[in-house]
């Protein structure tokens, strides 16, 4: 098969391409099972936002660890020590119980992402930083993509991302931030 080696995996026998994230996920996506071959699975790095189960044979989505469902064949994704040892990738934060990672967009959005409910706790949301591609809503709880602010659609639960004076203030602070980043890059050159 003519698979894109950066994004796809070529099954050994039936000459089809599957997405790279489907390798070593615990499911035979290739008829011959070549996408779950143990030597390969032990050697590969997991796809972004995925972690390797303790047996080293399977990659699971970071959001699926310590969620109450066994996703790893060895059930290590529900082991508290395993969950606590995993670090969250950029734009994710650990729940207060230190077991799960949730995306900053899931903070105080009205839907529980953490089993302990901490992602809906106002104090927890308030003290969490969003990251450089996001801005906080006026209530200081929710994170929203900065590109989604003042776009004619309410992304914040408090609708502050569409309030005129907030939009003026946000655009000014965001352009100040971008100007600072440009100056910072020039200084590093």
From TrEMBL:
User: What SMART domains does this protein's entry cite?
Assistant: LDLa (SM00192)
Q: Which Pfam families match?
A: Ldl_recept_a
Q: Name one GO cellular component term.
A: receptor complex
Molecular functions per Gene Ontology: hormone binding
- Extract the InterPro entries matched here: LDL_receptor-like_sf, LDLR-related, LDLR_class-A_CS, LDrepeatLR_classA_rpt
For this chain's UniProt record, which GO biological process terms are given?
Answer: receptor-mediated endocytosis
- Which compartments is it annotated to reside in? Membrane
Q: Which UniProt keywords apply?
A: Disulfide bond, Glycoprotein, Membrane, Receptor, Repeat, Transmembrane, Transmembrane helix
What is the protein's membrane topology class?
A: Single-pass membrane protein
Q: Which PANTHER family match?
A: LOW-DENSITY LIPOPROTEIN RECEPTOR-RELATED, LOW-DENSITY LIPOPROTEIN RECEPTOR-RELATED PROTEIN 2-RELATED
Q: What is this protein called?
A: Uncharacterized protein
């Amino acid at each position: 098969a003519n698979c894109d080696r950066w994004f796809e995996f070529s099954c050994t026998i039936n000459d089809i391409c599957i997405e790279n994230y489907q390798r070593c996920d615990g499911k035979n996506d290739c008829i011959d099972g070549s996408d779950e071959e143990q030597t390969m699975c032990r050697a590969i790095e997991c796809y972004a936002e995925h972690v390797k189960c303790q047996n080293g044979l399977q990659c699971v989505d970071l959001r699926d660890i310590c969620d109450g469902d066994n996703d790893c064949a060895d059930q290590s994704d529900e082991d508290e020590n395993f969950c606590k040892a995993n670090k969250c990738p950029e734009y994710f934060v650990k729940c207060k119980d230190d077991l799960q990672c949730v995306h900053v967009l899931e903070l105080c959005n009205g839907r529980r992402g953490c089993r302990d409910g901490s992602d809906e706790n106002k104090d927890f949301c308030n003290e969490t930083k969003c990251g450089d591609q996001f801005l906080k809503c006026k209530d200081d709880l929710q994170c929203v993509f900065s590109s989604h602010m003042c776009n004619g659609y309410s992304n914040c639960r408090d609708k502050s991302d569409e309030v005129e004076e907030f939009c003026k203030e946000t655009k000014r602070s965001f352009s100040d931030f971008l100007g600072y980043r440009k100056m910072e890059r020039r200084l590093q050159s």
